[in-house]
Amino acid sequence: MLLIQNIRLSRILRNTWQVDLIMIASCTVAYLVREYLIAHHFEIPSIIPTVLGTAIAFFIGFNNNQAYDRWWEARKIWGALVNDSRSFARNLINYVDKDDEAIKRMVYRHIAFLYALKANLWGTVDEIYIKYLSEEDMKEMDKHKNKHNALLNIQSRDLQKLSKSNAIDGFRFIEINEMLTRFSDSMGMSERIKNTIFPTTYTYLTKVFIWLFVVTFTLVISQSAGIASIFLGWLIGFVFVSTQINGMSLVDPFENNSAGVPLNQITRTIEINLLQMLEEDEIPEPVKPINDEYIL
């Protein structure tokens, strides 16, 4: 997630330089075609790029709006995980009687759940959660492909044991079990966003229309601007392309990049909070921003 208010021009150019070169080449070809092939035969009506530009603006606006909705929904899901995780640990610590070891084991297992879910969403191998699990838990997890779902199943089983041993009353059992259900809901919503591809036709057609607009704009403007139309065509195209790229960077909020939801920071924050609630001595450091520009 980006932290700075102003994005450096160098960062924008790093993301768009390849497209910029292609646009300059396209504008150059369009200028040469108009200058040497069609200039003396007919003129391109200016209404064509005008209508195309208006249509593309609607396309880009719609795409960017939908992309931000996906990103914001993902951020709300993980914000809910933060709140529910704190409540889960607090209820275990204050409501469960006679079994401090079980409390610690379940809180540790929840931290492991978060790290396992994060690794799954990022598509990485992050086995930091191993240190929070017992050998018995690890053996149970090896039987499952969905590691984080397996951990929730173990949590439910341990909660049932606490109920049978009268370490927790029925009302509080229901309340804590409700939190496990909310964890499952958040997990499922995160997986839904991760596994639902943004409609390919939206992005593909927008790109095609942008290229068509850049070419026709250059053809029209070259009638009055001459060779400067190459630069002007690139400049107008740069605005559309940069806006499109900006929106599409939010389409996959669980990608491990500067535009994604900062799962590292959120998971570490929960980890620190829960360990402090357990009065542990070894507390990890918060995740720090990279180059004071973004945080993962």
TrEMBL record:
Keywords: Cell membrane, Ion transport, Membrane, Transmembrane, Transmembrane helix, Transport. It comes from the Bacteria. It holds the Pfam family Bestrophin_2. Its main location: membrane. It is found in: Cell membrane. It is a multi-pass membrane protein. The chain crosses the membrane at residues 12-32, 44-62, 202-221, 227-245. Belongs to the anion channel-forming bestrophin (TC 1.A.46) family. This is Bestrophin, RFP-TM, chloride channel. The lineage of its organism: Bacteria, Pseudomonadati, Bacteroidota, Sphingobacteriia, Sphingobacteriales.
